[in-house]
């Protein structure tokens, strides 16, 4: 089964042109499935049944895995066994009729403008790390980009003169403007922070850790948690909270939803509309004041 999984991953990479994150996720999920089935004496794809796959789902549930994790695993299974069917390796798809567990959608954490201002003001020192942290937080809130897009920005993706960044993925690219506050933070980082962090190394990446290596998702998550605690924010914020807040604040203050959709990189308007709905509900529960403070 492991051989077939590896062939499937090659197919994803070379034919489907999926992202590296998707490829790694599928491979991890499927190898864990293969390990479980192997312990049950099932090592051939043709011997896998709906019952054995349901047993794996039940095993994940008993192990306390989140419904989102189980749903993602099932998506990986369905894609793999559908591929095996189309390749003629199996006659019937054992995953076809398996249903994913119901996922309860949590409302995104949307900070107030005052909370965002307090969070962004925390890295107020003059060390290279604080210059970097301030620039990353300001840019994330000013543009609403995803954390993966932030940490994968290259130096060449930044245009400080005009004031925009270029975000790219395997399908498209988009140019996103940022305001004067972000421009000042980025300028300070480029002039007084980045070279010190690189320690005379050369790097194409815009943001690096203190060893001059590319910033990781986990590393930036720790940065957000640190400054969130320092700001006294009670909500369990994540880097994505700034993206949520960016969208909700702009829509709450009258920004055109199509413009916000383009900036966020949403292909579906319904996804952007979600922020409008949350912003309206939040306006009742917690008062917003002013416009987007980092415009």
Shape: elongated
The number of helices is 13
What letter string, H or E per element, gives the SSE order? Answer: HHHHHHHEEEHHHHHH
Low-confidence stretches: 287-291
- Alpha carbon gyration radius: 22 Å
Write down how many β-strands occur, each being a DSSP E stretch of 2 or more residues: 3
Mean pLDDT: 85
Structural class category = mainly alpha
Brief synopsis:
The protein is built from 13 helices and three strands; from the N terminus they run αααααααβββαααααα.
What can you see in these coordinates?
The chain is mainly alpha-helical and 295 residues long. It has 13 helices and three strands; from the N terminus they run αααααααβββαααααα. The protein has a three-stranded antiparallel β-sheet with strand order 1-2-3, with no helix packed on it. A hairpin with a 4-residue loop joins strand 2 (164-168) and strand 3. Residues 287-291 have low confidence and may be disordered.
Features of the shown structure:
mainly alpha, three-stranded antiparallel beta sheet
Topology of helices and strands:
Layout: H1 2-16, H2 20-39, H3 50-62, H4 67-86, H5 113-120, H6 128-143, H7 147-151, E1 158-159, E2 164-168, E3 173-177, H8 180-192, H9 194-198, H10 217-230, H11 239-252, H12 257-264, H13 269-285
Helix pairs in contact: 1-2, 2-4, 6-8, 6-11, 11-13, 12-13
């Amino acid at each position: 089964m492991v051989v077939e999984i590896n062939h499937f991953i090659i197919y994803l990479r070379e034919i489907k042109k999926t992202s590296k994150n998707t490829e790694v996720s599928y491979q991890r999920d499927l190898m864990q499935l293969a390990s479980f089935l192997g312990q049950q004496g099932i090592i051939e794809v043709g011997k896998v049944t709906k019952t054995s796959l349901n047993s794996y789902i039940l095993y994940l549930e008993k192990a306390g895995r989140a419904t989102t994790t189980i749903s993602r695993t099932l998506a990986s299974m369905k894609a793999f066994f559908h591929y095996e069917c189309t390749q003629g390796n199996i006659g019937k798809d054992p995953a076809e009729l398996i249903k994913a567990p119901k996922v309860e959608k949590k409302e995104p954490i949307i900070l107030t403008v005052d909370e965002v201002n307090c969070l962004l003001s925390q890295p107020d020192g003059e060390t290279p790390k604080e210059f970097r942290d301030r620039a990353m937080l300001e840019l994330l809130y000013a543009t609403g980009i995803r954390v993966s897009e932030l940490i994968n920005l290259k130096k060449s993706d930044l245009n400080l003169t005009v004031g925009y960044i270029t975000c790219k993925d395997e399908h498209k690219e988009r140019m996103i403007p940022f305001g004067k506050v972000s421009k000042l933070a980025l300028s300070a980082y480029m002039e007084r922070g980045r070279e010190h962090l690189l320690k005379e190394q050369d790097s194409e990446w815009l943001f690096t850790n203190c060893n001059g290596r590319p910033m990781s998702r986990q590393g930036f998550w720790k940065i957000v948690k640190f400054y969130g605690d320092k700001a006294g924010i009670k909500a369990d914020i994540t880097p994505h909270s700034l993206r949520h807040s960016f969208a909700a604040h702009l829509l709450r203050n009258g920004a055109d939803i199509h413009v916000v959709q383009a900036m966020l990189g949403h292909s579906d308007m319904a996804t952007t509309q979600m922020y409008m709905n949350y912003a309206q509900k939040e306006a009742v529960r917690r008062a917003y004041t002013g416009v987007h403070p980092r415009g």
